[in-house]
Design goal:
The complex is a heterodimer of chains A (about 110) and B (about 120).
Chain A (H helix, E strand, L loop, with lengths): L8 E4 L5 E6 L11 E6 L6 E4 L13 E6 L2 E6 L8 E8 L5 E3 L3 E5 L1
Parallel strand pairs in A: 1-9
Antiparallel strand pairs in A: 2-6, 3-4, 3-7, 5-6, 7-8, 7-9
Chain B lengths: L2 E4 L3 E3 L5 E8 L7 E7 L5 E7 L6 E3 L7 E6 L4 E6 L8 E8 L5 E4 L3 E5 L2
Parallel strand pairs in B: 2-11
Antiparallel strand pairs in B: 1-3, 3-8, 4-5, 4-9, 5-6, 7-8, 9-10, 9-11
């Protein structure tokens, strides 16, 4: 199972919105509404930000939202803040009780 | 609070074995599967597989069959990852993470650094 292909990096200024794409295939992202997103700050464990494509866990800011169109899932962060600077990973169910992560995207807040 | 606490950093020589523990607290251990994720230095997250904490049945990702073993001790709410015949490319941080039915990993351990070097 190959890693989902995320952009290596994205950037935005404080207050702006950015979107991170997670292109998959018809065997993973396209077939299941089981995409989750994780935020990881340097030296820290990942944190769940979005589950089931667009569900936000309790405690996660409503500036974070998820969506899916066809074989591509997306994470949008609105009203960028300095604390959002981190690595972001998507993860999708790929059938047969297996899961696959994206390669990760480094978000820089300018 | 609900948490996963992993064992400390390990240094091993090539060919040796290592066993990482992941102790769960403040939730019913057998109600949630446990996943394992690897992160090599400077690299992304890699899904290794998961273990059904109710049945003990493991599921390994491609590339993690043979040398990698998931196990449990439900009496102490602890999951284990054993890596046999260590290679230098096994050097990484290994995370355990509680897996929900929707596949999301909602609680993560702090990670265990395993270094393989002679």
């Amino acid at each position: 199972q190959s890693a989902l292909t995320q952009p290596a990096s994205v950037s935005g200024s404080p207050g702006q919105s950015i979107t991170i794409s997670c292109p998959g295939t018809s065997s993973d992202v396209g077939s299941f509404n089981l995409v989750s997103w994780y935020q990881q700050h340097p030296g820290k464990a990942p944190k769940l930000m979005i589950s089931e494509v667009s569900k936000r866990p309790s405690g996660v800011s409503n500036r974070f939202s998820g969506s899916k169109s066809g074989n591509t899932a997306s994470l949008t962060i609105s009203g960028l803040q300095a604390e959002d600077e981190a690595d972001y990973y998507c993860c999708s169910y790929a059938g047969s009780s297996t899961w696959v992560f994206g390669g990760g995207t480094k978000l820089t807040v300018l | 609070q609900v948490q996963l606490v992993q064992s400390g950093s390990e240094l091993r020589e090539p060919g040796a074995s290592v066993k990482v523990s992941c102790k769960a607290s403040e939730y019913t251990f057998i109600n949630h599967a446990m996943g394992w994720v690897r992160q090599a230095p400077g690299q992304g997250l890699e899904w290794m597989g998961w273990i059904n904490t109710n049945t003990g049945n493991p599921r390994y990702a491609q590339g993690f069959t043979g040398r990698f073993v998931f196990s449990l001790d439900t009496s102490v709410s602890t999951a284990f990852l054993q890596i046999n015949t260590l290679k230098s490319e096994d050097t990484a941080i290994y995370y355990c993470a509680r897996k929900r039915n929707d596949g999301a990993f909602d609680i993560w351990g702090q990670g265990t650094m395993v270094t393989v070097s002679s």
